[in-house]
């Protein structure tokens, strides 16, 4: 196998080169493995598992050659001979024969039966064995259908022997005296019987009929009878029952193949009768697509039978059909057409009446709802038209062109395109007809019909590309030259702007074919290089990059712009509408005058039209084009109002009022109108439209405020995009229209806006809080000046109160983001006013909220939603820290930096990959930052040795296998130990297998390194106990903590403490674990039992207390806990054999294993007390709960 790497550079769009691997096979490389598989068939046929495995492997090998099956040709003969040896051997059991035929079928399927069947042996000696083997098959056996399929194909080949079949019969009397059936009748009976089966052998039977019935001896004796049988089968069945559908399918398929391979003279006499039978059957109205397809195939074959087999003299001939031949012919050499060819042909003869019926049937087939039927009808039209006189053929072409009416469905357009491609390919579409055909093909290339919430027509556009491709090969350049502009523009528009990737690639291939074959397409080579098969695969790349390059050639600029305006900005898909408007923005520099004087006036009426999608796209397009014209004006020192007319400026200003008057901001339409108008507000503000102090500004502000207030009424899928549009619009609007003078805000608007959005932070609607927070975050500096204290108080209060309540998680996230944005906007001044900048007076307050948000672990039905707040807090901390460190590092207190780095270390050790990545990268960025350098980082030198600079790019925090081996090294740094271990707790005690494995592996590796260091291990134990104490009531930490502790005890991580009786660590640990005994959480109780069993390894009173706790749990009120405790105690006593007296060990083990610990408590307490006596532990006392006395 040869792999060729093709570098495909995508120009523009910020995309680098992408490497595309083309899989091109150089030959059949698995021949040795294939030979081994085939040779192993006698050994494996009896074992279902191995035979199935071998079949699957053989199928996998063969399927690799589906695209290039000709590579198998040199190897087909030896494969066939090896397999047929097993088939022909009398010693081969049936299972081996069936498996051999299965292998043969796999080869046949990949190479194609027409090629493969020619290799099957077809000597006279093969007829009877094949016939006998086929007779012994069970047509109803679903496991062996491949055997029957291949035998029928083999029999088809043996039928080609050039001897009369009666010579094979010999004496027709068998040994018993009963007459033996002639070979001819046997074959015919088998063919008929298999035409009526419901599986694939039916297809092979139709091939058998086509070969067998065309033999001279058979057609003389049996052809009429077989046709009578077929017509009877057709007339007596319907398409209502499955059995009748199968019979009808077999009969039609066999007749179609028979008329394809048979001689016209033999079949012509039967054709009218069959035609009449088909007409009465009304197959075109059947609900079964395969029956309609076979009806079309049979009808076209009948039509070809009615017409004399001749080559139309009038057909268009290009000369050499091969590209290589065309290139090799000298330009001075003219191709002379011998007159002898043209003379023999144009003889007038009567066209049978049935041909008209055939053509009408095929034309109706072009409009069928199934592609397979339309494709067959198109090929039929091409074949039949090739035998008609010129005048009649032209009428057929005219009828095909009638399919391209807008009253017809997309099926008719698709069928018409396929028919035109066939006619063009066969030279039956004369150049004189191109005047009518090319405009229809251009329309087809952009055909799209809306159906409900989507559209149809991608198949039409794909077929139109095929027509363009076929025309490139069919016509001389001089014949297509008048239509080059139309075809090239339409193909490029489809290649760049079509929504369907298959259509884009088909148009690219058709354009490339025209460039190569015709050589007349403007800038063909340059465009083919930029818009090749792979480049057009990315829709964004097409709309934002490739189209700009193509539009740089003036021949295509206006055509592309016009298509976007006419077809794409009103498209049903919102993504296409938005991409189209961005494309118009990028195309504006190519034709600024055309955009300003033609396109913009054309869009403005659409922006207030009745079509919702058109209105949405037109408003966005107006915004993008106006902004693009403004940016062009900057280069020539012209204002945008000097580029576009005053009428357009007024129309842009009036769009909002017209939409508001019509109440088009409401309901479903409002979900599109609000963000599109916000985009218009943003772009017009950025374009410095002269609307200052105009009433329209108040209208725009009302729209922004109303949208923030009503976000909760929008659909969930559009909320995020609407918020982004609103925030961008507000920022641009403030920047342009709310400055009393440069750098100073309009005080009235400043008071109104800030007060309004701070009030919005207290709204009962979460999305209103989100929008208000982000609105405050996007305000420009002059709007925040003197209002910073008020804004920070509002944001801080909302974060603190909502976190305590556990509500409004998304609002907290956005408030944290807004907090950082406000700080970055106002900047830092160490001794500045707290109402105007981040300074020493308010920095601690800001950091306090951000650090507090790092511990937000709110959960709801969606899971750990607090992670959104933590992520926002981490990125905000990074932004604020970089800002402060660069401008006023003296206000960055050591405690703040320490808390920040510890919190980042904790998040870097936690279990969720995404947030671990964010925390880890920010941790390294702050650590390695030099300009500015962040001061007061604890253990900076040790951290730099653990995380050298290379880790900023090489360390993949997303991979647990890499991240945890670094993060666990922080456990050796005292100031980071608590937070790092707290983060590792939820990872080691988690449920994700890879995270648990690598985090615990790294943790135990660290613990093994300090086993000999009693001081370090004691400090680690104290930290562990601190975490346990602080999170006793927090199940999100306590349960993972117990799981981690269980693993530590199982791995003997505290073995140094076991030598000392009643070590304080063990005593404290046991005391804390006892707290969980009263819990009702089963998962917590289960892991608590495991921890108690692990604590048994410690000496002294700890061991007695542990046994006491376990014995109490043996009579827990939950049966599942009793059973789990008994099982784990059994394992514990096996592991630690020094726990109890060996004399009673067997009795204890027997009692633990044999007792049903899920039975009633009264019985179990007796057994438990017995265990207490054996283990020398005082019996627990039963405490009866006193019920409250009821006063009557």
From TrEMBL:
Keyword match Transcription regulation: no
Q: What is its main location?
A: other
Q: Which InterPro entries match?
A: ARM-like, ARM-type_fold, ARM_TBCD_2nd, HEAT_type_2, TBCD, TBCD_C
Q: Which UniProt keywords apply?
A: Cell junction, Cell membrane, Chaperone, Cytoplasm, Cytoskeleton, Membrane, Repeat, Tight junction
| Ranges where the Tubulin-folding cofactor D ARM repeats domain occurs | 291-525
A single MF term (Gene Ontology)? beta-tubulin binding
GO biological process, any: negative regulation of microtubule polymerization
Residue spans of the HEAT repeats? 358-395
* Domain Tubulin-folding cofactor D C-terminal: start-end pairs: 899-1084
Location relative to the cell:
Cell junction, Adherens junction; Cell junction, Tight junction; Cytoplasm, Cytoskeleton, Microtubule organizing center, Centrosome; Lateral cell membrane
Q: Which GO terms describe its cellular component?
A: adherens junction; bicellular tight junction; centrosome; lateral plasma membrane
- Family that this chain belongs to: Belongs to the TBCD family.
- Role summary: Tubulin-folding protein implicated in the first step of the tubulin folding pathway and required for tubulin complex assembly. Involved in the regulation of microtubule polymerization or depolymerization, it modulates microtubule dynamics by capturing GTP-bound beta-tubulin (TUBB). Its ability to interact with beta tubulin is regulated via its interaction with ARL2. Acts as a GTPase-activating protein (GAP) for ARL2. Induces microtubule disruption in absence of ARL2. Increases degradation of beta tubulin, when overexpressed in polarized cells.
Q: How does it assemble?
A: Found in a complex with at least ARL2, PPP2CB, PPP2R1A, PPP2R2A, PPP2R5E and TBCD. Interacts with PPP2CB. Part of a supercomplex made of cofactors A to E. Cofactors A and D function by capturing and stabilizing tubulin in a quasi-native conformation. Cofactor E binds to the cofactor D-tubulin complex; interaction with cofactor C then causes the release of tubulin polypeptides that are committed to the native state. Interacts with ARL2; interaction is enhanced with the GDP-bound form of ARL2. Does not interact with ARL3, ARL4A and ARL4D. Interacts with beta tubulin. Interacts with TBCE.
- Which PANTHER family did the record assign? BETA-TUBULIN COFACTOR D, TUBULIN-SPECIFIC CHAPERONE D
**What's the protein here called?**
Tubulin-specific chaperone D
Q: Which organism is it from?
A: Cottoperca gobio (Frogmouth)
């Amino acid at each position: 196998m040869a792999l060729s790497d093709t570098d495909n550079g995508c120009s523009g769009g910020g995309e680098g080169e992408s490497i595309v691997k083309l899989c091109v096979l150089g030959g059949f490389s698995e021949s040795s493995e294939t030979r081994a598989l085939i040779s192993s068939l006698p050994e494996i046929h009896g074992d279902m598992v191995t035979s199935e495995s071998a079949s699957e492997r053989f199928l996998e090998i063969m399927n690799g050659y589906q695209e290039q099956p000709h590579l198998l040709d040199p190897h087909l003969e030896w494969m066939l001979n090896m397999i047929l040896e097993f088939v022909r051997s009398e010693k081969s059991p049936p299972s081996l024969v069936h498996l051999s035929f299965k292998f043969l079928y796999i080869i046949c399927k990949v190479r194609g039966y027409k090629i493969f069947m020619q290799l099957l042996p077809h000597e006279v000696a093969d007829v009877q064995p094949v016939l006998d083997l086929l007779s012994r098959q069970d047509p109803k056996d679903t496991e062996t259908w491949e055997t029957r399929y291949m035998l029928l194909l083999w029999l088809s080949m043996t039928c080609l022997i050039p001897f009369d079949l009666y010579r094979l019969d010999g004496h027709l009397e068998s040994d018993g005296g009963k007459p033996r059936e002639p070979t001819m009748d046997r074959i015919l009976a088998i063919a008929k019987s298999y035409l009526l089966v419901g599986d694939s052998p039916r297809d092979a039977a139709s091939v058998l009929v086509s070969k067998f019935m065309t033999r001279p001896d058979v057609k003389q004796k049996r052809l009429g009878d077989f046709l009578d049988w077929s017509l009877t089968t057709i007339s007596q069945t319907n398409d209502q029952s499955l059995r009748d559908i199968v019979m009808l399918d077999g009969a039609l398929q066999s007749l179609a193949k028979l008329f394809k391979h048979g001689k016209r003279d033999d079949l012509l006499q039967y054709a009218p009768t069959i035609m009449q039978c088909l007409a009465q059957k009304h197959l075109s109205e059947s609900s079964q697509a395969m029956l309609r397809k076979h009806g079309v195939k049979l009808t076209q074959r009948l039509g070809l039978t009615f017409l004399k087999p001749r080559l139309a003299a009038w057909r268009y001939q290009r000369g050499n059909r091969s590209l290589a031949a065309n290139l090799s012919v000298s330009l001075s050499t003219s191709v002379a057409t011998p007159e002898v060819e043209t003379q023999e042909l144009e003889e007038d003869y009567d066209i049978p009446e049935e041909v008209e019926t055939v053509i009408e049937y095929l034309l109706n087939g072009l409009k069928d709802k199934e592609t397979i039927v339309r494709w067959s009808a198109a090929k039929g039209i091409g074949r039949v038209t090739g035998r008609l006189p010129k005048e009649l053929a032209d009428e057929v072409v005219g009828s095909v062109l009638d399919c391209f009416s807008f009253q017809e469905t997309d099926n008719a357009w698709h069928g018409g395109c396929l028919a035109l491609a066939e006619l063009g390919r066969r030279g039956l579409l004369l150049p004189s007809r191109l005047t009518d055909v090319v405009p229809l093909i251009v329309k087809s290339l952009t055909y799209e019909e809306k159906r409900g919430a989507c559209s149809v027509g991608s198949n039409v556009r794909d077929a139109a590309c095929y027509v363009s491709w076929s025309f490139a090969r069919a016509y001389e350049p001089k014949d297509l030259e008048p239509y080059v502009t139309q075809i090239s523009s339409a193909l490029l528009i489809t290649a760049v702007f079509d929504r369907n990737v298959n259509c884009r690639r088909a148009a690219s291939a058709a354009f490339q074919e025209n460039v190569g074959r015709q050589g007349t397409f403007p800038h063909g080579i340059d465009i083919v290089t930029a818009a090749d098969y792979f480049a057009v695969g990315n829709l964004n790349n097409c709309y934002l990059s490739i189209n700009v390059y193509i539009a740089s050639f003036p021949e295509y600029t206006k055509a592309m712009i016009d298509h976007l305006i006419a077809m794409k900005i009103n498209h049903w898909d919102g993504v296409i509408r938005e991409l189209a408007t961005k494309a118009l923005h990028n195309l504006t520099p190519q034709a600024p005058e055309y955009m300003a004087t033609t396109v913009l006036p054309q869009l403005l009426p659409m922006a207030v039209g009745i079509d919702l999608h058109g209105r949405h796209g037109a408003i966005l397009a107006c915004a993008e084009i106006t902004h693009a014209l403004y940016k062009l004006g900057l280069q020539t020192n012209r204002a945008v109002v000097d580029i576009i007319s005053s009428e357009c400026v007024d129309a842009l200003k009036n769009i909002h009022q017209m939409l508001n008057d019509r109440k088009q901001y409401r309901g479903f339409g409002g979900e599109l109108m609000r963000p599109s108008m916000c985009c218009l507000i943003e772009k017009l503000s950025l374009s410095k439209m002269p609307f200052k102090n105009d009433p329209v500004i108040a209208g725009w502000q009302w729209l922004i405020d109303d949208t923030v207030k009503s976000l909760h009424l929008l659909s969930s899928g559009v909320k995020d995009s609407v918020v982004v549009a609103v925030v961008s619009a507000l920022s641009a609007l403030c920047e342009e229209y709310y400055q009393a003078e440069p750098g100073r805000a309009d005080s009235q608007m400043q008071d109104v806006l800030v007060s309004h959005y701070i009030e919005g932070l207290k709204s009962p609607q979460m999305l209103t809080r989100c929008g208000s927070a982000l609105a405050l975050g996007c305000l420009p500096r002059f709007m925040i000046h003197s209002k910073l204290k008020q804004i920070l108080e509002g944001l801080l209060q909302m974060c603190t109160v909502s976190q305590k309540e556990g509500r409004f998680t998304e609002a907290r996230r956005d408030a944290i983001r807004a907090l950082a944005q406000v700080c970055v906007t106002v900047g830092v001044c160490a001794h500045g006013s707290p109402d105007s900048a981040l300074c020493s007076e308010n920095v601690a307050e800001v950091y306090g909220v951000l650090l507090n948000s790092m511990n937000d672990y709110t959960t709801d039905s969606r899971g750990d939603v607090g992670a959104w707040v933590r992520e926002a807090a981490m990125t905000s901390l990074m932004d604020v820290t970089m800002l402060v460190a660069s401008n006023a590092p003296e206000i960055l207190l050591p405690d703040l930096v320490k808390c920040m780095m510890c919190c980042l270390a904790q998040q870097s050790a936690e279990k969720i990959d995404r947030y671990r990545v964010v925390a880890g990268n920010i941790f390294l960025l702050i650590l390695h930052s030099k300009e500015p350098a962040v001061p007061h980082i604890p253990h900076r030198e040790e951290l730099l040795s653990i995380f050298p600079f290379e880790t900023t790019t090489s360390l993949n925090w997303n991979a647990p296998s890499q991240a945890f081996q670094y993060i666990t090294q922080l456990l050796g740094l005292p100031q980071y130990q608590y937070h790092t271990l707290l983060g590792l707790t939820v990872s080691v005690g988690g449920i994700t297998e890879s995270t648990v494995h690598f985090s615990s592996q790294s943790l135990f590796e660290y613990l093994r390194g300090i086993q000999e260091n009693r001081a370090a291990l004691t400090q680690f134990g104290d930290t562990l106990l601190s975490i346990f104490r602080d999170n006793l009531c927090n199940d999100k930490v306590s349960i993972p903590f117990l799981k981690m502790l269980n693993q530590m005890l199982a791995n003997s991580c505290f073995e140094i403490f076991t030598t000392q009786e009643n070590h304080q660590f063990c005593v404290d640990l046991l005391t804390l674990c006892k707290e969980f005994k009263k819990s009702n959480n089963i998962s917590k109780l289960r892991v608590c039992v495991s921890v108690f069993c692990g604590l048994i390894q410690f000496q002294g009173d700890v061991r007695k207390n542990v046994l006491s706790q376990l014995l109490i749990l043996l009579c827990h009120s939950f049966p599942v806990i009793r059973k789990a405790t008994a099982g784990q105690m059994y394992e514990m006593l096996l592991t630690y054999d020094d726990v109890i007296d060996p004399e009673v060990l067997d009795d204890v083990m027997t009692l633990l294993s044999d007792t049903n610990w899920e039975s009633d408590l009264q019985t179990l307490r007796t057994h438990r007390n017995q265990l207490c006596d054996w283990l020398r532990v005082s019996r627990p006392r039963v405490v009866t709960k006193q019920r409250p006395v009821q006063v009557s």
